[in-house]
Design brief:
Number of strands: 10
Strand content: 25-35%
Shape: globular
Order of helices and strands: EHEEEHEEHHEHEHEEH
Radius of gyration: 17 Å
Largest sheet: 10 strands, mixed
Distance between the termini: 24 Å
Structural class: alpha/beta
């Protein structure tokens, strides 16, 4: 049965969904990596597709910007469409000196200035963490492809234009590997509704150094990261994790 934000009946999505923020990136992934991809959602232009990667059925769907948006789509995919694994494939900013533009980072955990997880956890702090097996398989897949990854704590910000720039120095001190806007919410939804989730990002800019990737390099880096995520799914399957 359709939801307010997703059209179609149960079964149109695979049990695994890759989720970029931009719906056009979802279309790009479907056209670039999936065979026999078909569009399964276009409500509010939040495009979703289902196809096959090396024989394995996989879906991809945009999640929009920010924790409220990703939380809506992740919740409905899990509870209404039976999705078991959600992998956010996105971009992030760096603050640490040893994290550079075009690096790939995996969010083992996600700190946040959002109150959503406290709300769902009755006012208490909730440790928003990725699924360990998915994380391990992503790291192994990256190593097999010769892609160096950094694994650690993300920061999911409610504000893109933060009025407290000194916060970035604090993040650096605490070892944050990447600043983005969704992972903590995704991990909270997955925990609440019994799914498995992971976030993998390419570093598009360095916030403290003022460096950024040109558009062509962003696309190459994004494709490299998506392939790591897809290969992680196959490794996860082989390990019998789903």
């Amino acid at each position: 049965m359709a939801t307010p934000h997703i059209q179609g009946e149960r079964g149109i999505f695979a049990d695994t969904v890759l989720m970029p923020g931009d719906p056009l990136r979802a279309k790009h992934i479907a056209e670039t990596f999936l065979e026999d991809a078909r569009e399964v959602n276009s409500v509010r232009n939040m495009l979703g597709f289902t196809g096959r990667y090396r024989g394995r059925e996989i879906s991809v769907m945009g999640h929009g910007m920010g924790i409220p948006s990703v939380s809506i789509y992740a919740k409905e995919l899990i509870t209404d469409y039976g999705v078991k694994r959600l992998i956010r494939v996105g971009s992030c900013g760096a603050v640490r000196d040893d994290v550079a533009v075009r690096d790939v980072v995996v969010g083992l955990g996600a700190s946040t200035d959002s109150a959503v997880n406290r709300t769902r956890f009755m006012g208490h702090d909730f440790a928003a963490i990725a699924d360990f097996e998915l994380t391990r398989h992503a790291v192994d897949a990256a190593a097999a492809q010769g892609v160096a990854v950094k694994v650690g704590n993300l920061f999911s910000a409610d504000l893109f234009y933060n009025p407290q720039p000194e916060l970035f120095e604090l993040m650096k001190r605490y070892g944050i590997v990447g600043v983005e806007m969704e992972a903590a919410g995704l991990y909270g939804v997955a925990a609440e509704f019994g799914a498995r989730a992971m976030t993998i990002c390419t570093v598009s800019d360095h916030i403290l150094k003022g460096e950024s990737l040109p558009s062509e390099a962003r696309e190459r880096s994004f494709n490299e990261m998506v392939e790591v995520a897809l290969e992680a799914v196959l490794r996860d399957d082989a390990a019998g994790a789903v």
